Each structure stands twice: as C-alpha cells, then as structure tokens.
Amino acid sequence: MSNPEKIHQKSLQLLQEQLEDTQIELSVMIKKIADFQIAVPSWALGAGGTRFGRFSIGGEPRNLEEKLDDIGLLARITKRTNAVSLHIPWDIPKDAAAIKQQAKALGISFDAMNSNTFQDYGQPLSYKMGSLSNPDAAIRKQAVDHNLEVIEIGKSLGSKGLTVWLADGSNFPGQANFRNALQWTGDSLKEIYGGMPTDWKLLLEYKPYEPNFYHTVIPDWGTSALLCSQLGDRAKVLVDLGHHLPNTNIEQIVATLMHQNLLAGFHFNDSKYGDDDLSTGSIKPYQLFLIFGELISGARDKVQAWESISWMIDASHNVKDPIEDLIQALEAISICYAKALLVDRNRLMNCQIQGDVAGAQELLQAAFQTDVRALVREARIQSGGEADPLAYYRGEKIRQQLIAKRGVGAKATGL
Ligand code: PSV
Ligand code: MN
Q1: In sequence order, what are the beta bridge partners of 113?
Q2: Ligand 1 pocket: which residues have CB below 6 Å?
C-alpha cells in the first residue's frame, strides 16, 4: 500500500471512531458527498476575471467545444461536477445538437443559462444607461429579447433555468430615477418570466455595487426577493457569495431565503473585499461551513427542498491554472459541506433552547476542526474519480498537453 493510501485508510478509520457515539454513519456521509454536484461556468476555463492584464497560462479553450472538453476532464477526475453553465453571447453553440451530443458523451448536462446585458457586444442599441431598467422602451425591449433568445438556446440544449444578473444602476446622484428603474426592471422581468417554459426557473442575482458605484437596481437579496415574488414561484434569489458588502452575514441571508422557499442557488467564490472572484474556500472557509449548516438545517426542517437548489462556481482570476483552481474549489466546497454534515443538529437545537452558547460553539467548532479530507477522497474513489485529482493533473502533464494541442497563446473566449 502506498503512503497516501495508508494515510487515507487510517484517516477513515479515525473518522469512523469519532462518529461512533453519534447518529451519523460514514457510508451515508460518503454517499451525500458523492451525490453533491456543482456546475462549472464556461467562463472559468481561461485566465481572466480582470480588466487589467490577462496573463494567459497557455492551452486555454478556444471555443465552446474545447471548454466542454476541459469540463469533461474535471468531471472525470473529480466526480464533483456534471454540468456546465453557459454565458450568452460568449458561448453561442453553432450546432446545438452536436454540442448536446458532445456534452452527453462527456457526462455533462446544461445548468442554468446566463444572459448578458452588461456588455454591449454588438447590440444595435447601447446599454450605457441600463438594460432592463433603461428609460428607453426600445432598449428595454432589446434586453428582454436577448433574454428570450437565451431561453431558446437553453431549450435546444436541455437547460432548465435562466440566470439574470444586471449591471443596471447609476454612477451619480440624479442620473437615474430609483423608482422608475425598479418598476421597469420588474416589468421587463415579467416578460422574460412569461417566455420561460413552465419547467424552468429564473435565478435572479443581486450585487451591491460595480460597475455602478452610486446605485444598483438590484443591490441586495431583499430587492431580488421582492421582484421574484412579483413574478411567480419559479423565480428565486441567487446568492453569489462575492456579491455582499464586507462582513455581511450571508448564512443568515441563506436561512431567511430558505425559510421563504426563495433560494434559487449559489454562485460559489470567495472574497476579501468585494466581488473578488477568488477560489472558493481560500479566504473564508468557516463562513462557507456555516452557510452549508443553514442549508442542511433548512432542508432537514423541510422549509425548502435540497434538490430545488442550484450549485455553481462563479470565479475567474488571473494567476492560477484555471483547471487546477477549479479542482481546488470543488474540493473546498465538498470539504465545507462534509464538515457541516458532521454537526449534530439536535444537540445544537438543545443548546439553543437551553441558552448554552459555549456548548453551541463547541459543537460547531468540533465539526469544523475535523479533518474530513479522507471522506471527500473516499467519495471520489467510490464514484470512479481520481484519489488526488490535482496530483493526477500535474503528473499527467495535462496543461502541457493542452498547450501542445491548442497553442501557447490560446486564450479562452468570453469575459
Ligand atoms: C457578476 O459579477 C457575475 O457574478 C454574474 O453572475 C455574471 O454572470 C458573472 O459574474 C460573469 O461575469
Ligand atoms: Mn455570479
């Protein structure tokens, strides 16, 4: 037995012993971790996420087909992802049937589609003063039509959702009328919602600032929830972890949204300051653990079904090999989920009832401090993935192979 394998077996045994006097079963945990799949966005396969220098790592995917190949590789070695989320117009399939077939062969399905009215991209009318909230009805119509077109593309691929993120807002006081902008956004969204098939959901993102720095039309979860409630029960709020002001209690937002059955899903990433799009778990893993705690608790209390929630990574940066970064992010998310599964929710509830604050903290900390890497690794091995995907990726020299195939200067499309 190799050394990593010995450590793996010993760690599993230790975890088994630690769980002995709890209700938690190792095999049940492994199954839950194995079942938890996170979609990868088509824009995360290249170096990017910046308006400053883009330093290509070489061998980046040059088209949608190559992006799917990269995600197929991730799916095969990590077993933590089985879906791609496309951004239109960055990834318009030339031949939807062929793309669908390629994805199927790679074991990938199509997660929510993303519309884009935050860049002009050759649209005849400019979004400089907003898209769905623009004072000009013709521009609003153009933005609505774009979303309807994205729905059509998604239908042809078998997607079941539309994610809308708006950059709409204003940079200076007086530039926009707050109430009108909100009203027009709601009206435009109603048209988009009306154009969605009945088995689709609309995922509405919020973000406090950027690219507008005075006001954003949908700045927070409350505004997003308000708009969703005007649309219908297939419209829900999407939580992008980076779309909060520093120190926001995101786990509380998650609990509140679940309590109202209004949580659409997640865009996972991490941040120190704002929408930094850093690798999930690299800055605030404890926060992610607490978020998973609320998700597990909400699903357990049946306020919202676990299966109704969408999971996706939304990160893109400039200094790591994007595939290595995604391997790390998928691992970090699975680890925080596994740690949250270790919390004895009944005991936590008892601490809350008895006002045992220190006891509650002990329970959370004990779960968070437990090393669950062997569990995540075991789930991957049992699913047929690589024991250590990063080591495999490096050992097989996959980036070098991609550079040889696609070229050292190959830059990913989009962003
Ligand atoms: C906006 O910052 C965002 O999070 C939205 O989800 C976009 O679709 C994505 O980034 C890509 O730019
Ligand atoms: Mn996002």
Answers
A1: 162
A2: 43, 114, 165, 205, 207, 240, 267, 275, 314
